[in-house]
Amino acid sequence: MTANDPTRRIRDAAEALAPHLVAIRRDIHAHPELAFEETRTAGIVAAELARLAIPHRTGIGRTGVLGVIEGGRPGPTLAIRADMDALPIAEETGLPFASTVAGKMHACGHDIHTATLLGVGAVLRDMAPMLAGRVLLVFQPAEEILEGAAAMIADGAADGIDLALGFHNQPDMPVGSFGYARGACLAAADRFDLIVRGKSGHAAHPYAAVDPIVAASAFVAQVQTVVSREIKPIHPAVVTIGMIQAGTTYNIIPERVHLKGSVRTLHEDARDLAEAAIRRLAAGLEPMMRVRCEMDYQRKVPPLLNDDRVLEPTLGAVRAQFGEVLEEGEPSMGSEDFSEFAARAPAFQLRIGSGAPGRDDRLHNAAYQPDERCIELGVQALSRAALELLG
To answer: What pLDDT, on a 0 to 100 scale, did the predictor assign at position 204?
Structure first.
């Protein structure tokens, strides 16, 4: 093995960077910021890119940062994306670098992702002469509300990209392992608000009122048939009512009910069928239950489709760097707005194991604790993938 061997060169560089990247991660973790509030985090990113002499722009998609590494030869443009926002969760880890902001926490590992991409930038800056093309380092806000990718793209973050590479830490996979799924790997995410308006009255005289709670209850029961009777069984879909809000006390029939629901699908035809069915069921309440319905249905992000043109070279790069550490997994009905980039160029999202025995393995959990070694390993995997994709 020579000193110019990419395996050794990338490994040595990532190992040297690891303490600095862990320190950045812990700083960000202690100061979490919610969607489109990531000004401090973006400032850390911009300062680090400036230190590395990587050209960059701030304020992309409000609080996003975009760095650019030019390769030594002409070639395609590869976007590598990390998300930066935290969640409205009160941290209960007891860590010395736990959140200092009440009610906010990095419970999904976006602090891990930000530090990892900064490490990738440092490695690829030094290996730029070996790249045929250019790398866009995309530090994205507001993934948790599924709006940050669209905001950055509206500001030009996806202009001219030919390939896109995403990643996510996986605390349910041991650190040192990497995972993938072929084809549709994450679901489209849509949501709806339904207002059911009736006629308020005394609970003792329901005949003189129009009860929107009974009508809303009928809708909740009927909407379960969207998955069981409207969509093909081989096309996964989930319809969930997450909120019902109505009434003030025991003996009053209220004027209105507000429902909030989410719809997850892996296939576009299932997505279309679900929306049409939910709208039809809501409209049907009006003549059936004598209520008036107001539906606000929003399509948020499309399903995330892993493209073999990016998946296969990335898997080859991971094998070349680490050996056989890959696990093929199943699609998830979770959603990710990296799919907005994937809708514009061939893309793949790599799963990076971050779990350790005895630690909580659930994302979006107050006790969530990833193994920080996944930062260094992620830097190696993604840097080697860029070298393969732009070789």
So the answer is: 98
CA atoms within 13 A of residue 381's CA, in its CB half-sphere: 34
DSSP 346-378: -EEEEEEEEE-TTSB--TT-TTB---THHHHHH
Per-residue pLDDT tens over the stretch 116-159: 999 999 999 999 999 999 999 999 999 999 999 999 999 999 99
The strand pair at 347-355 and 178-180 is best described as: antiparallel
Q: Of 268, 301, 334, which residue is a domain's last?
A: 301
User: 80: which strand partners?
Assistant: 137, 165
* Interatomic CA distance for residues 374 and 114, integer angstroms: 12
**What pLDDT was estimated at residue 359?**
83
**Domain identity same for 240 and 294:** yes
CA dist 140 → 34, 110, 111, 292 (Å): 12, 10, 12, 40
Tell me if the pTM is above 0.90: yes
- Can you give the pLDDT at residue 1? 44
Look at residue 5 in the predicted model and tell me its pLDDT: 87
Pair (119, 29) in one structural domain: yes
Q: How many CA atoms lie within 13 A of 300 on its CB side?
A: 24
Report how far residue 308's alpha carbon sits from residue 266's, in angstroms, rounded to the nearest whole number.
17
CA 321 from centroid of its chain's CA atoms? 26
215 and 136: one domain? no
Q: How many domains does the chain have?
A: 2
pLDDT at 360: 79
Regions of the chain with pLDDT less than 50: 1, 3
Angle at Cα 62 formed by Cα 51 and Cα 242, nearest 5°?
120
Q: Which domain holds residue 228?
A: 188-301
1 in any annotated domain: no
